[in-house]
Each structure stands twice: as structure tokens, then as C-alpha cells.
Specification:
single chain; 59 residues
Length: 59
């Protein structure tokens, strides 16, 4: 798990790790505020808004 991954978007070694991680790990989780540098290199998951989750729990 990598938090604030947007800080590493220019690091060539880190980008290589992201691309190669699928060979050695089942999951590499990147937590970032800017998903665009990782588009095409990984699967993006954006959780629903908290309000939506709370409404689903009430139903």
C-alpha cells in the first residue's frame, strides 16, 4: 500500500514498480488524490460518496 502516491508520479523507479508489481504481488494499492498518472497502468477504483453508502445502509 502506498499513500500519497501522487508524490511519486515522476519517479522512474516507482513507475517501474507499479508496472512490474503484477508479476510479484496480487495487489498493489495506491492511495492518491490525482489518479491520472496511473491511468492505463492500473485499475482505478473510486468508492462511492459517504452519503450514498449511508443511504444504502438504511435501505
Amino acid at each position: 500500500m502506498v499513500e500519497k502516491a501522487h508524490r511519486f508520479q515522476e519517479d522512474r523507479n516507482f513507475n517501474a514498480l507499479v508496472v512490474e508489481a503484477r508479476k510479484f504481488a496480487k495487489k498493489l494499492i495506491l492511495i492518491t488524490t490525482d489518479w491520472r498518472p496511473w491511468d492505463g497502468k492500473s485499475i482505478m477504483y473510486k468508492p462511492p460518496a459517504l452519503y450514498t453508502l449511508l443511504q444504502q445502509m438504511k435501505a
